[in-house]
Amino acid sequence: MRCPCFSTILLTAVICGFSVSAVATAEEAWPTFRGPERTGVSPDTGLLTAWPEDGPKLVWSTSGAGRGYASLAIVDGKIYTLGDGLSTTDDEDEYVVCFDQATGKQLWASKTGEAWNSGKPTWQGSRSTPTVDGDRLYVVTPHGQLICFQTDGKEVWRRDIKEDLGGKKADSWGYSESVLIDGDKLVCTPGGPQHTMAALDKMTGETLWTTARAEDRGAGHASMVIASIGGTKVYVQTTGSGAMGVRASDGKLLWTYDIKKTTAVIPSPIVRDDLVFFTAGYGTGGALLRQVPTSNGEVKAEEIYPTTPALGNKHGGVVLVDDHLYGDTEDRGTPFCAELMTGDIVWKSRGSGRNSASMTAADGYLYVRFSNGTMALAKATPEEYEESGSFKVPGSGRNPSWAHPVVLDGKLYLREGDDVLCYDIADS
């Protein structure tokens, strides 16, 4: 084969507080980008607090994920991701791929369409993490194909986000959202002023409602999250124009928080109770809003602090642990810790890896994946950044390691281009 090792960009995310409805049937599952509640925080406990010099035990590694930036969805003993030019196929097209969680064996691969070959070589490839719901899974290709598959790989329906829904991207890097499943609805972000957000029947793909945000620049790369404000369910999302809140029942645009035009808006928002934190890179920074109920099921957003460049994050994502935010400074490989309510930086430190860092959290620790292939473990504390282990991921270093890590059931799962690796991190 063909494609050297690639991993994840244009994806990001994070929330804390509200669960995503109807995305998993198993108790132990990671059914969409950044997990069941889209927090990037795993419920796992009893994990290693330090790693050996060469890293935790490698349980298995497998090939056949293809070129791509997508992370992993894990449900009912199966792992799903998106990639193109798989080492297990004889073409360069894009596929949704399924692996056995226990062994890493590839179970099936179903074609979605053409590969994404636009832009710099290291920015090409697949990028949307699948969303799994019961016996179905949903993917968005970079070209804007929204496809529903059965979990055995059979295609059920597809919609073209650009052609069918008038979608528009705010940049030239393709679509990468992981769609939201909420009850019977699939909710996605076509982007643009006509159909900024859309809700579809998850079983048939039929359009239920769309939301228009005047002069919206187009979809970014975030995956939306859910809030509940005074009895009103709100879908919170960011586009190329900034943050927005949409009433879940009918798609009514409730509020917007506009930002200046920037290169790309990638990280997903963080929701805790009535608070919304969102951030973007390229000098934009992070802001904190409070959602306030008004009347007749409407909600407004009030600014607690404005976009603060010190809180900027390009694509590695930010996690909220207790009352502090943790993320990479832009894409510099310099993790930061900040107070959620004030935005004040508590610490900022260089880690053992280099370049951009994506992270997840579990059991009071940060799992920091630097794009040069270094995987690090650090305690999630406002006191200081101190690593208690790091290792070089096999096969890394040829291209950026951008796929977000997943911690589930005592294991650390990493996507490294065509390879998926499983590590035992249980403290037993």
What does this 3D model show about the protein?
The chain has 428 residues and is mostly beta strands. Helices cover 0% and strands 42% of the residues. The chain contains no helices and 33 strands. It has strands at 41-42, 57-63, 73-75, 78-84, 94-100, 106-113, 131-133, 136-140, 145-150, 155-160, 180-182, 185-188, 197-201, 207-211, 225-229, 232-239, 242-247, 253-258, 270-272, 275-280, 285-293, 299-308, 318-321, 324-328, 335-339, 345-348, 357-362, 365-370, 374-379, 387-392, 406-408, 411-416, 419-424. The chain has a five-stranded mixed β-sheet, with no helix packed on it. A four-stranded antiparallel β-sheet has the order 2-33-32-31, with no helix packed on it. Strand 21 (285-293) and strand 22 (299-308) form a beta hairpin. It is globular, with a radius of gyration of 19 Å. The relative contact order is 0.17.
Offer a few descriptive terms.
5-stranded mixed beta sheet, 0% helix, 33 strands, 4-stranded antiparallel beta sheet, 42% strand, mainly beta, 428 residues
Task: Sum this structure up briefly.
The chain is an all-beta fold and 428 residues long. It has strands spanning 41-42, 57-63, 73-75, 78-84, 94-100, 106-113, 131-133, 136-140, 145-150, 155-160, 180-182, 185-188, 197-201, 207-211, 225-229, 232-239, 242-247, 253-258, 270-272, 275-280, 285-293, 299-308, 318-321, 324-328, 335-339, 345-348, 357-362, 365-370, 374-379, 387-392, 406-408, 411-416, 419-424.
List the helices and strands and how they pair.
Layout: E1 41-42, E2 57-63, E3 73-75, E4 78-84, E5 94-100, E6 106-113, E7 131-133, E8 136-140, E9 145-150, E10 155-160, E11 180-182, E12 185-188, E13 197-201, E14 207-211, E15 225-229, E16 232-239, E17 242-247, E18 253-258, E19 270-272, E20 275-280, E21 285-293, E22 299-308, E23 318-321, E24 324-328, E25 335-339, E26 345-348, E27 357-362, E28 365-370, E29 374-379, E30 387-392, E31 406-408, E32 411-416, E33 419-424
Parallel strand pairs: 1-27
Antiparallel strand pairs: 2-33, 3-4, 4-5, 5-6, 7-8, 8-9, 9-10, 11-12, 12-13, 13-14, 15-16, 16-17, 17-18, 19-20, 20-21, 21-22, 23-24, 24-25, 25-26, 27-28, 28-29, 29-30, 31-32, 32-33
